[in-house]
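ugh finaly. both done.
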Amino acid sequence: MTTLRSKKETAPIVKSWIRNLSPAAEFWLVIALCFGVMLFKSFDDALFHLFVGPRRHPITDFTFLSMGVYELAAMAAVYWIGRIRGWSFASFGLRVTWKGTGAGILLLIAVELALACQSTLLQLSHLSGGYASQFSGALTLPTIAINSLTNPVFEELMEVGYFVHVLKRRGMWPTIAASVLLRTLLHVYAGFAVASGVALLGLIFGLTYWRWRQLWPLIFVHMMFDFFGLLQQNHIR
């Protein structure tokens, strides 16, 4: 009884605190909830590689599914915060349509061409780099499929949709630059070539979303990259 009473007394206090947060405080709270752990791990791996050497990470179904659970929990927390503060994910443009799928296919072709051009330029300028972390192990096909659904939804919802929702009053370029910066920092562990490719992808995604305000084409492209990327790396059993 005491525990129930304390929870009932605490909930209104927490809701009131969230409701009265400034826009900047809300933004940093959401970033900490969704990306704090990932940013720490990305920088930790990058620094380890710089001073010690590549760090090996075993790939297992458990680690990938754990990441999916974390992302779902973070989205649930942000959804709750949004409801308290008067906004919802629905306003980000999450509708799945055939038209959006067609746009996603065209966007996939454009992204592949852009990344191919960037890769060629990096090779010609001798700036292509390797991975800071080395992955070993294998995944089952169901785990790859689940990860290829949850991770794209989480990343595009939070790294693009939320950023535009919060920062759009500052203008297109500052908003897109902030989104690209976060996406890139989350991948610094992977070396310059990968991080620069992620930055280019983030720029294309940001411009596309700013123009049409639809997340599904972005999620579709991300799903294709995640699914076939894991298959091509032979992390499957």
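ok and the 2nd:
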Amino acid sequence: MTLVVALAAGAKIAAGTGAAAGLSEVVKTGITDAYAACKKAIRTRFGTDKDAKEKLAQLEVKPDDAALQQALATYLSTHQVEHDPAVTQAASALQVQLTRIEGGIGSITTGPITGNTITVDHGGVAAVNITGGVHAGYTPPPGTDNPR
């Protein structure tokens, strides 16, 4: 999932549109908080570029606007946000939260899990108690080529 797609999805949830109607308050809050943190990290990376900050703000009003998404993607590239650890960490957190939407924006996979506890709530959100040298990673949904 591209960062712009994740931001657009987060903007919809934060605005209470799109899939937001069917989500629990816990999931909405998780996505909204992760979206706000990601947006803040990007705004910081944009520095004094008011145009870039304006495009980011406009995404909340028009999250499905393809031209706006493309313009924002250009600003993200120009400011090399992919090299900013605060942005990449916030983007990863947002993508993890977005996986909580039923229907799957993406999925979280782990390495071999043995002797650990996995619990799932009624919304399909899994919590895993991982111990030992197990690793985890994000897998974007089919048809995407970039997890950020």
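summary for the 2nd one i guess: The longest strand covers residues 107-110.
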